[in-house]
Amino acid sequence: MDVALVEFSERGFDGARVNHIAEMTSTSKRMLYYYFGDKAGLYRATLLAAYENAKAMDHNLTLNELTPTEALKQLVVKPFNNRSALTSFTRLVAGENLRRGECVKQLPEFQEINRPTLELIQTVYARGVETGEFKAGLDPLALLWLVLAPATFNVSNQHTFSAAWGEKLYTETGQQMLCDMAVQSVLSVVVKEQDSD
């Protein structure tokens, strides 16, 4: 799966070569087809494995001991940092979006794999509303989008952004600044303003 992830993420579905994956894994194309059916089957299995791995990293958090605000911060920071480490995953997802989600729509497990991420956001958000830290009436799905968007853009557009404006934001200092700004953006939408009287 690791080799297939790199191949599909770097070359896309159409450009990826099963022969190359077989060679890099010391197996044969015939054996890969035996297990996965065809190139599309291998691609679908790669997508599932990549999503399962990414989601496992995102959920490897202990949030119950944190205040809702601190937990929400972690939900922004964790994917931001993970996506930078998971460049191949982000490229694979970008490629699947270019294909209009053709393969993930065929995976019955896909929504189930992603469901815990939304449930995590819903839980943290509900706790925050209950404690009075968060504004009521926000859509947790929209909140999930807001949490994940900076992390995804940070990786998917790194090369074009850097070509246009230089590498400043992709230094260690620049990445920390972007992460801090992403956290503040989410908090500004969610955290209830304190009364000043």
Description:
The protein is mostly helical and 197 residues long. The protein has one domain (47-190): Tetracycline Repressor, domain 2 (Orthogonal Bundle), CATH 1.10.357. The chain has helices spanning 2-15, 18-24, 29-36, 39-59, 68-85, 87-98, 110-131, 140-156, 158-165, 172-190. It is globular. The model has no long low-confidence stretch (mean pLDDT 90).
List keywords for this structure.
197 residues, 74% helix, Tetracycline Repressor, domain 2, mainly alpha, 10 helices
CATH architect. name = Orthogonal Bundle
Summed up, the domain count is 1
CATH class: Mainly Alpha
Main sheet overview: none
Terminal Cα span: 58 Å
- H/E series: HHHHHHHHHH
Binned strand content:
under 5%
- CATH homolog superfamily: Tetracycline Repressor, domain 2
* Global outline: globular
Low-confidence stretches: none
Please write out the topology.
Layout: H1 2-15, H2 18-24, H3 29-36, H4 39-59, H5 68-85, H6 87-98, H7 110-131, H8 140-156, H9 158-165, H10 172-190
Helix pairs in contact: 1-4, 1-6, 3-4, 4-7, 5-7, 5-8, 5-10, 7-8, 8-10
